[in-house]
Amino acid sequence: MYFHDLVVSNDAGPVAATDGTGDAIKIVANGGLPGLVRIERAYLLYAGRSAVRTVAPNLIDPPSNYLNRLTMRDVSIYGCKGHGFYLKLVASLDISESWTTNNHLCGGYLEDCGNGVVQLAAGANGVGLTSTTLEGQFVLKTCADIMIQGGNYEGFTPNTVKNAIVLLGSRGCVVGGNEFDNPRIPQNAGSRSIYLRDGSYGNTILSNLHADVDKMVEIDNAANDVGNMVLAQACQGGDANGPGKVVLPTGGRNFAFPTNLAGGFNDRKGVGLLLPSMPNVTTIDASVVQNGLLVFDSSDGKLKLRTGGAWVIVGKQT
Known about the structure:
- By secondary structure, the protein is an all-beta fold.
- It has two domains: 2-277, 3 Solenoid (Pectate Lyase C-like); 278-318.
- It is 0% helix and 42% strand.
- The chain has no helices and 27 strands.
- A hairpin with a 4-residue loop joins strand 25 and strand 26 (302-307).
- The chain is globular.
């Protein structure tokens, strides 16, 4: 199915206070699946619920309800009463050159989707959001292998929920080369550019550019948010409400290099190298132990190096 060169709009007006009904484009995967849905050069405005929505009604056998592939290119979404777009059970997706703004809930929401690339501009969404930990401008819930790159997220702090990108129980995703920008206002306190939680593991946060954000990257301090890697982030501008911090778990096997690539006000808001940790390094599987392995042992609080076939404590540690 191919939707192109469209303008779909309800009557213009203020965004409703609740998630309504009625989608500009609704795709129902039930039985015979569309092999490809492509949406290009479309303006989708003031939908009663979402501009684009996929529905899989038979969840007894979810694999039979996956939409094989969905492409959104040069799609503009504005003023919807629910999420700007809500995609569920899409096996492969490609979103590019698209923007979503001034929607009542999230700008975009992916659930149980995988294998895709997202290039998105999102901002000023979410006046109706209430969960400061589970919602944001763009949310990935239990998704896998999604790359979010080359996007722009701005103006996401005036409302109650101040998150740009949120990963909930998602794995193998990559976030890099995006810009996060807010006006310099007191409401920036508590804002997050990138937030991982609810068992998000194996994700990679590449370098991104941030301005006037409280937390550039935060990984929830939970035992199942592990195996993630955070590379250096760049922060421009900032004040006491948007200093550009990197907030990482006190435990867990995450690797991070939280050195701020910019100076000024943001100095010393997150620098150094965070190594993976685990209790009792002697219990690491012998098949992966080799000389040169460096691990923080959380059992005794020591940094240890495998050398000469044995574990030795690095440096003088008390």
